[in-house]
Amino acid sequence: MSFDHIGVIGAGAWGTALANVAARGGCRVSLWARDPGAVTTMAVSRESLGLPGFRLDDRVTPTSSLAEAVDAGAVLLAVPAQETRGVAALAASLRAGTPVVACAKGIERGSRKFMTEVVAEALPQAVPAILSGPGFAEDVARGLPTAVTLAAQDETVAQALAQALSSPTFRPYHATDVRGVEIGGAAKNVLAIAAGIVAGRALGAGALAALTTRGFAELVRFGRAFAARPETLAGLSGLGDLILTCVSPQSRNFSLGLALAQGKTVEDAQRGGTLIEGIFTASVLTEMANERGVDMPIANAVAAVIDGRLDVDGAIESLLARPLRAEV
Questions:
Q1: DSSP E strand boundaries for 38-190
Q2: What is the pLDDT of residue 328?
Q3: Run of H or E residues at 79
Q4: Prediction pTM value
Q5: What gap in Å lies between CA 146 and CA 76, rounded to an integer?
Q6: How many DSSP H helices and E strands does the chain contain?
Q7: Beta carbons within 10 angstroms of residue 267's beta carbon
Q8: Pick from 83, 323, 296: which is nearest to 190 by CA?
């Protein structure tokens, strides 16, 4: 199985970066954007509006035709988690058996579905896969060394997709634990908001280390409840991504935590069209955890702050006032 033509749906920062990744790997790439005007601009300037300042590889062809983008050996679905179902449903002309790789990190609100489940429902003829791990769009676009996890239920598919996207600076590890990869990407966004709050309140490096460690324990407990493999949760898409997003203002979720710690509102943080996946994932993550009896106090505190049930000081106090217990 090999892929010489890759379709990328979504010309935002991540979609643009992944389009260039696929092109560097030797693939011909069709990069889809909904707005024909944006496509014309990209075709002329060779620069994506979603990632200004970075040139599109010569093998990337911008298009506003979704049929053209899905007429490929594999498709990367690089749109926000809450838009994945709607955009995927538009790709009805997708050929049966085509791998569709979800590249968003989140859980669909309302349905409580993971991204590959959304793809399977919206495109039953597709072979769902997931790409996740520690990497920022700008760093990937610059060609800085990045390692991620690409998972599909069929190991042959996962391996072939990883091979197609690999390049000297982009290394996808293949896996079959689809759920574990999805859980790592979704949960770390919520925990990164908490890390941003700790940093924004200048609570110290020790507090940030403790928050990240206990947050990882929550991620692992949640993963176990959904039969994720421990090695996946401790890998790139779990611990690796959590470490990255809990220390860097490049993370939108970490930056949201910083803003909340400085007294700004969630609405203020989203002005200018900034999309922050953790805002949408926090409540559904905690609802799913509570249903299965999974203890996630940090995630619960973040959800309470985002929903307006607690202020930042109340959230910090609630965590520090928890009864002492064994470290498990």
A1: 60-63, 74-77, 99-102, 107-108, 113-114, 127-132, 146-152, 170-175
A2: 76
A3: none
A4: 0.95
A5: 17
A6: 16, 10
A7: 7
A8: 296
- Strand order from edge to edge, sheet including 127-132: 60-63, 28-32, 5-9, 74-77, 99-102, 127-132, 146-152, 170-175
Give the up-direction half-sphere exposure of residue 94: CA atoms within 13 A in the CB hemisphere: 31
The yes-or-no verdict on residue 77 having pLDDT over 90 is yes
Angle, CA 28 vertex, CA 24 and CA 30 arms, to 5°: 110
Nearest to 235 by CA among 157, 136, 147: 147
Name the amino acid, one letter, at 221: R
What are residue 89's phi and psi, to 5 degrees?
A: -65, -25
Which tokens belong to 131? Answer: 């790409």
Which residues are bridge partners to 149 per DSSP?
A: 132, 173
Q: What is the mean pLDDT of residues 91-98?
A: 94
pLDDT at 48 (0 to 100): 84
**Lowest-pLDDT range, 205-209, 221-225, 270-274?**
270-274
SS3 state at 82: helix
Token pair, residue 92, equals 């009805």
Q: Give pLDDT tens digits for 15-39.
A: 999 999 999 999 999 999 999 999 9
Alpha-carbon distance 138 to 124, whole Å?
Answer: 33
- Hey, CA dihedral for 158, 161, 167, 170, is it positive or negative? negative
Cα 79–Cα 82–Cα 85 angle in degrees, nearest 5? 75
Catalytically annotated residues: 188
Contact 56, 44 (CB under 8 A): no
Q: How far apart are CA 121 and CA 215, in angstroms?
A: 31
Q: Are 175 and 240 in contact (CB under 8 A)?
A: no
